[in-house]
Amino acid sequence: MRMFNLQRFLKRLQPKRISAYFLPGDMMVLALGVLGVFYLFQLLWSTEHATKVQIRLADKIYATYSLKLQREVHVPGKLGDTVINIANGKARFAKSPCQGQYCVHQAWLSLAGQAAICLPNQVSLELLGENKPYDSLNY
Amino acid sequence: MFKFFKSLALVALCFALSACFKEPLYHSQSYVFGTLVDISIAGESDERAAMLANHVFQNFQNLHNRLHAWKATVANQPSELGELNAAFSKGEAPLKISPDLAQMLLEIRTLSEKSEGLFNPGIGQLIGLWGFQRDEFTAVTIDAQKIKALVKANPRMADIVVNNQSAYSNNAALKLDLGGYAKGYALDVAVAYLRQQGVKNALINIGGNVIALGQHGNKPWRVGIQHPRQPTAIATLDLADGWAIGTSGDYQRYFMLNGQRYCHIIDPRTGYPAQHMQSVTVLVPPQAANQSQAGVLSDVVTKPIFIAGATQSSRLAQAFGIQDFMLIDARAHITVSKQMAQKLHWVNADVQFTTLP
Description:
The complex is a heterodimer. Chain A is of the alpha+beta class.
């Protein structure tokens, strides 16, 4: 029995069949479509919504949670408990024992790469996605 | 036709494979200089990267303790800068200082002159008066008389005399606060150390000032620039080997009083916080060995531009040999230098901005 050979199969198929159905212009459309998908994938993925939140306390990773499940996290910082809310694909500093409350004013974060820090209590949030839109943040 | 499919399959294969061959990336963060410090090292084993990063963090902590502007001792270590400031205020005889601190003072004087006095780390008393020499910033009662007196005393870097690794000041009102310099200096120290250790690829972020060593995989390191009023990046850019980026903003260290924002960047001419800008970002190329390095410049150059405002920006940036900068003024209008415009990738494609000629 002869083994199935893809190359030979395509070769037999090729000259008459494919060109009979596809004109060169069709192939162009197809190629542009494929390139377009790649391009959009690369473009849109970078600002894609985050899937997880990483919470850091001082120099340690305190916890990493999915953004899908609603929860309230209490992080014991040096000034006291920082309360972090996670809900509907977003996360935020809900309560903080610091004076300035800059962290709480950052409100909800939802995009990959977004970050908020509470310097006095040394707690930080970073949203993670499939791809990082950047390696580090300049501020 | 078949060839076409074959090349397409090859492209798809490349995409799939590139995901597998990711070089190791070590990431670590800590709180030093009263801010968040973040170190990424690529292409080294986790153990070696951790060892190197810890060494850098220790260096930073040591610098922080030595250069602390308003705590006499940090972690049982007396602040060298604090002792020098005490000697300045008493008008004492020259005080012996470390060779590297002497070098810093000379460098800061040159930078201050280049900035036409707008970058002035000698106004520590004003910075303290505005409440920015504390761990947390709350509104202060504005003491107009005292501010006036301190501006009149006119402490300048040129009042410091550095001789034979000792220093004294001709002006008792001069009080050093290296808040606009030490983080940039630390970036350069870290890069020099990592290079000397044979590290090819690293990214160091001290409180938002970032410097790059090598690249990340087969692409340059990519940095996001924080939007001054939203919890998101406004743009991203590639940071090539040896380049540094720095931003001065009114959104990290400030307080609100009667609906007005007072930020930590004080205009030495008026004694009041600068109020024309939300943020100023500069991108600094690698520098020749015998002058100020990229890290220092990324920290320093934003300050005079922030204080002087948009109209003076090109001239001031040029004085430091910098071509890439972005300004966001108090009304949120964005201005970008021509060179910078070519490097930025805006997060929001509809963003409105002016490009300088």
